Structure formats: C-alpha cells, structure tokens
Amino acid sequence: MNTCMNTSVEILAREGKAAAAYMATSSETQKNTALQALIQNIKSHRDAIMKANQQDINLAKAANIHASLLERLSLENRLEGIIHDIEQVIRLPDPIGTSYDVQTLPNGLVLSKCRVPLGVLGVIYESRPNVTIDISALTIKSANVALLRGGSETLHTNQALIEVIQQSLKDAGLPATAIQLLSGRDRTQVSELLQLDKYIDVIIPRGGAALQQFCRKHSTIPVITGGAGVCHLFVDETADFEGSLRVIFNAKTQRPGVCNAVDTILVHAAIAKAFIPRLQQALQEALSEKRVQFCLDHKAWACVGALDCCRLAKAEDWDTEWLSLVLNVKVVENIEEATAHIKTHASGHSDGILTENPCNAAQFIREVDSAAVYVNASTRFTDGGQFGLGGEAAISTQKLHARGPMGLQELTSYKWIIRGNYQIRT
Predict the structure, then answer these.
(1) How far apart are CA 21 and CA 2, in angstroms?
(2) If I label 229, which of 27, 155, 255, 352 is the partner at 20 to 30 A Cα–Cα?
(3) How do residues 210-238 score in pLDDT, each as one tens digit?
(4) 9-224+406-419 belongs to which CATH class?
(5) Which residues are paired to 351 by β-bridges?
C-alpha cells in the first residue's frame, strides 16, 4: 500500500501525476474490470474492513466524538449500499473520449469538444470512510487519479479500504498509484497538499465551513467547495399537510448527520397555527428514542407554547447546519419573505417548497439559487446515487466548474478538436 506514513506528500503527488498519464489512455474495459475487482475484494475482505472500522469507532467513542460524526464513521449495514453504488458506476457510459458540440465552420473546419479527465484530484474529507470508495470508483471510471486525505478518526478503516482499492487496480493492470492515501495524522499534510499545483489539478474539500475556508485561503490549486448544507423547506399556504409532514420527517430524521438533512422549516402565516403543532407532534411521536428539538421564532413559539422540546431561536441558529435532531421553525408572511430568508441564511446546497400552487412553485424555482431546488420532495435526495450518478465526488455549492452532486461527467474537462483539410488563416 502506498501511503504517506513514510513518504512525503510531494512524492505521492508526483507518483499520482505519473499515473494520470497512464489512466488517461486506459480503456473502458480496464476501468470496469478494476471496479468489478473492487466489488469482489470488498466482499472477500469484508471482515478485515469491518474490524478496522470497529477499531476506529472504539477510539472515537473513547475520545467522546460528537454523535453526528460517530454516525458518519460507521460502516455498519452500509457495505451492500457501497457495492450497489459501484455497480451503478460500472453501468454508466464512459464519458472519456466522447465528442459533443460538433459544428462545421464556413471555412470547412470541423470543431468538436472531447471529454478528458481533470487529472489529479486532491480530496480532503472527514469521518465518512464510504467517501473513500465513492471517490475511488468515480475517479477510476473517469480516468482520473486521486490523492485522498481522510480524517484521523477514520485512519484504520481508510487504510483497509485503500489496500483493497489498490489491489483492484493491480488486478486490472492499472497503476496502484492512481488512488493513494495520506494516512499520517499530521495536519500539516493538508497545507502541503494545497501548495502542490505542479502535480495536483483540483482540490475537493468535503467537510465543514472551516475546512472549506481554509482550503480557499491557502490553496494555490483551484478549489471546488461544497458539502456544507444549511437546508430549508418552505410550507406554503396551499401545501398538503400529510404529504408535507412525511417529507419533513424524512428530510430531518432519516440521517440527521448529513449535509442534505433539512435545518429550517419556513411556514406560511396563514397555516402556522394549524400546521406547526401537528409538525411538532408528528416528529415527536414518530421517534422512539431521541426526539427532535425545536428552535422557534416568536410567531412559531406562540403556536405551540412552552414545551420541553422547544426553545426560542437565537440569531445564529438560522445559519447553523445542525447535523443532529434539531430543527429551526420560522413563520413567514408570504413566499417573498421565505425566499428572502433562504437567500440570507442558506448555504446554496438544497432548498425546497411544499405547495399545491404551480405559480408559487415556479416563483420559488426562479428566486432560490441553490444547487438543488425541490418542489414537494425531501432534500435528502441531493445525492449522487439518488440522482443516478453512482455516488458523487462532492456536492458543489459553487457555480464553477460544477454544481450539485459531482458524478462522472463533472469529473471531466474537455479539449477542442479541430479537423481540417490543410486550411490556413487569411
């Protein structure tokens, strides 16, 4: 296994750059063979992977790691889903080498764009070892190379996974250095990684706002930011109550520790007195263990009164990605106030409206400029696997170079191909 326990970050990056030239010319058959081998190797090394994961979980518990990070860390009951996502990637068409936007100029030149790999990806992420497989599968299929830096809390799991991934690359005749892990615990590795623009083509940080800001500030390499979600759902005056309650329950409670879980519910004033008590009751009664805690503005508070599960919201709550069973609720007078609140407090990740009014839906879509905008659906669908992409390298909340879940196509660039018949410029 090639990690930086005893090897400098620059050496790994240099090896990755060399592997990128080989990967760029690899065939679809080779790449799919590596992914098929990865599935088999995960299955055959399941016990070793789960043992390593349990070791990380035990250390995390001893360190009193936050419950939301502990949930992200665990691979319990998730390997089958990971294998399913790899199978999806295998079935997807290979984007590399495809031509599009073909046109013939008046002078007879034929122009087209050809998809090519981005090159070497530097991916920095925390707590979620499944990301190691997601990134690797998409990287291999898109003929890229990845230098991975997971969190120290996932060190043993990631080392076990990297061994499996690199063996799978070898099984397909591809360079094992196409996927490498920075497995040391020294955080200066991140700073060093961000300066290696000679070898690395793009940095993808998957983590909280502090990580995103650090990478933007210190990187000499283009950075694709995203993954931090302050997500909203607006319940307008025409919304179906039962359908809305189902959507909110799913968006908040299915996996509260992920970036596409909803953080704030905006409720139209015309239905607030009828809807908010039902929302509070529905979320409390449906959960058998830990209950949802509500942060309410004054108008929402007046709808439910002083309950143990409720408190008045603080100003900073509206900008908080909770990653737990905490939910903001605010009453708004109209759709304009709802969209204004979202523009002020959302992270640009996933925001939606629950409505039976197509005009309101259209207005919401026009005015809310998030990477994913929903009408009558849970924000939990913002996911590469759910979008049919076979996972994602990240969920970008910026506008360049990609936006939303980054699948195979988002991990490519293009070059112009110009075919002529010995034309010259006059």
Answers:
(1) 18
(2) 155
(3) 888 999 999 999 999 877 789 999 999 99
(4) alpha beta
(5) 232, 373
